[in-house]
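hey so i finally got around to running the thing on that chain from the lab meeting. sorry it took forever, my laptop kept dying and i had to restart like 3 times. anyway pasting the input first so we r on the same page abt which one it is
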Amino acid sequence: MRLGLNFGYWGAGPSDNIQLAQEAERLGYDSLWTAEAYGSDAVTPLVWLAAKTERIRVGTAIMQMPARTPAMTAMTAATLDLLTGGRFLLGLGASGPQVVEGWHGVVYGKLLTRTREYVDIVRAILKREQPLEHHGEYYDIPVRGGTGLGKPLKLIVHPLRGGIPIYLAAIGPKNVALAAEIADGWLPVFFSPRRMEVFRASLEDGFARRMDGKTPDDFDIAPTVSVVIGDDVDACRQQIKPHLALYVGGMGARGKNFYNDLARRYGYEEAATKIQDLYLSGKKNEAIAAVPDELVDEIALCGPRERVKDQLAMWREAGVKTLICGASSLDAVRAIAELAS
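ok and heres what got predicted. didnt touch it at all, straight out
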């Protein structure tokens, strides 16, 4: 099981992240990852970290598809892969309706259709076999009904790799199946290794529809997991609960919250309802307190080193190939490297 390190959104300062990135590389971590919502973008900090490291791979978890045309994403991916000598991993995701429509001003639409078109276009551009033409429901290239001057174009730069690995963020059943069908890897959030049966049918369905000959052995299951090392388990859990309460309770509207739906699929229906009711009522502290200890233990690594070492076995047994750690301290980064060896 490879190790990755997720820096999330940029904010603490570049010097801290560089130190963590260089230490992760020294310890043998496989990859570094950055994220974006409606603050810092994912690409700029990733380039900064890539420039300060030499061997470790660098990935986006995730670049928001509605924020960029597929062509712009392909241009960015080709450029970053060239600059890093083939170290780039392209993680894509749809984000949610709140951000897509409220920030980017784009209709959320049909997630599966948009994602499939997007990945097809990016792959076609990177392969550089012929000028780009795509006429789908979401992307019309060259666009029809414009000036009439648009023509099919081919990427000017020659990519270092025409097959840059593409990862998809997904937690819903149909989205997970799509990732298994068309992507090189899957980036689940709040993944529980105890609940692999929640995702198994979707993964199998997707693999059965693959057209490129790749098998589950070629597919990278790469969840991001929060890591807090400390002697007091309850104190460690308390560092994770606010983030979990935000997503289960407040990330999306009532009836349209993918993370709340996931908690319910894990069997926490009552807790998910309570957390959301409290959070949407402005009672954030109460919502945090309503997050079950058991849920934290399922989706995070927290507590004393011996406890975390025992927990790591479940992630391996679930078929995780890259464990992307959300660890913000050098001690935690070093501890996971030692415990996972």
